[in-house]
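$ ./design --mode recover --in tokens.txt
reading tokens...
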């Protein structure tokens, strides 16, 4: 017998919405149900729906359009060969992101060390533990959410509004890269 695995409400919402997208009933460009409709369909909170949309966006299944909602971005799982092609095609773009990220993250860490509250340090430790667990379980959704949360929490601990804003822009653009890199099985190995 295998132990029963705990699965978060967000993970279940992601799987349900992903099933809807992959079912063949939807095509690229179709609008997904509203947050409220999904809340009612799945009996979950709005914050859970928003988190599920963020994960699905990072995985490339959903495109969020401000003020308009969530739209289907793709209707099939990624082929590992396509993922490799994506990395080759986006090399310059990826390099640009990494240079910016490498420029702001050391500053963020330095300021966070100086300014983080004990509660913020505790939250970072919890996020790191959840990331390690997701890595051990090869849980893509867990890796995506904890990786983003860790970097975001470091910047929040700086208490520098401009740095937090710049980091959020980088995270938004970096979401596609993150989902592609975690989809490559070798990334999940320690």
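writing sequence...
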């Amino acid at each position: 017998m295998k132990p029963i695995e705990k699965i978060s409400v967000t993970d279940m919402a992601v799987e349900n919405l992903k099933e809807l997208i992959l079912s063949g009933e939807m095509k690229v460009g179709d609008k997904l149900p509203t947050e409220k409709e999904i809340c009612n369909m799945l009996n979950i909170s709005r914050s859970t729906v928003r988190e599920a949309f963020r994960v699905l966006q990072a995985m490339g299944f959903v495109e969020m359009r401000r003020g308009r909602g969530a739209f289907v971005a793709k209707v099939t799982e990624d082929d590992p060969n396509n993922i490799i092609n994506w990395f080759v095609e986006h090399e310059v773009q990826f390099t640009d992101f990494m240079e910016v990220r490498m420029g702001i993250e050391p500053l963020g860490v330095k300021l966070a060390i100086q300014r983080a509250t004990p509660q913020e340090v505790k939250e970072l430790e919890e996020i790191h533990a959840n990331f390690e667990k997701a890595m051990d379980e090869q849980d893509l959704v867990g890796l995506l959410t904890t990786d983003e949360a860790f970097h975001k929490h470091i910047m929040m601990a700086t208490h520098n509004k401009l740095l937090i804003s710049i980091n959020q822009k980088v995270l938004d653009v970096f979401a596609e890269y993150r989902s592609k890199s975690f989809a490559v099985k070798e990334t999940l190995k320690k």
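exit 0
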